[in-house]
Amino acid sequence: MFTFHRYLFIATMMLLASCGDREASPVAESTPADVVAAPAAVQIVGEEVSYAAGATVLKGYLAYDAARSGPRPGVLIVHEWWGHNEYVRQRARMLAEMGYTALAVDMYGDGKLATHPDDAQKFMMEVLENMQSATDRFMAARDLLQKNAMTDPQKIAAIGYCFGGAVVLHMARSGLDLDAVASFHGSLGTSSPAAPGAIKARILVAHGADDPFVPPAEVEAFKAEMQAAGADLTFIAYPGAMHSFTRPGATEIGEQFDMPLRYDEAADHASWEELQTFLAESFSD
What we know:
Elements: H1 4-15, E1 29-30, E2 34-36, E3 44-53, E4 56-65, E5 72-78, H2 86-97, E6 101-104, H3 117-128, H4 131-147, E7 151-161, H5 163-173, E8 180-184, E9 202-208, H6 216-229, E10 233-238, H7 250-257, H8 265-284
Parallel strand pairs: 5-6, 5-7, 7-8, 8-9, 9-10
Antiparallel strand pairs: 1-3, 2-3, 3-4, 4-6
Helix pairs in contact: 1-3, 1-5
């Protein structure tokens, strides 16, 4: 029987595996763009893009404001364990409205999606059992974003949700060259803490204070690790917020599969405002 506790434990442990910095060369192609309705003077465009990490074809989603000219900072978005779905695409469009070039990545390959926890766990474990491959997929997405004409290649950040939050924190711990990373209700634990001075990215963690999968001891250990590593950390815990608090529909999903998930509109909006400030400050340095 599936348990979400088991998922979080396994996900955390697998993300701790060391990985190198071998980069994959993306081969990008795009399908016709869909123009998303937006206020006057803003023209948000979303494009499905295909790229590659080794023999694996990855299907992402690039969003940008076509009314703007010139390159702008880029932001990668790593999906929850459900896979690359409409939720991360919507976040990409929201980032595009903020003036960024945003790429919702595909960590599973071929745009695979899960609608049941059993499938989500299977897809996730296929990635986490080979962290070198996971890193290659993340790096392929980063390279694709950097090489886009609308992106300033020197200004790249990454954000992630749940599984994706743990992924971006792992990339920061490994010293990947990113300006900033932000984790929303992601796992925080590690058995391979970041070495002093290794973390290059500023870090934002948006945490649900009542998240049963990230106990207080894990939070304190994470803060101590970041302090020892000399990381620039902003940690915000939202009272009453539980796991998946940014995800509309999380409450219904939790009820369907008997998991303690709950959407929290106030925490969702507050954490997004924090992200806006965080990115603006990170890219202004």
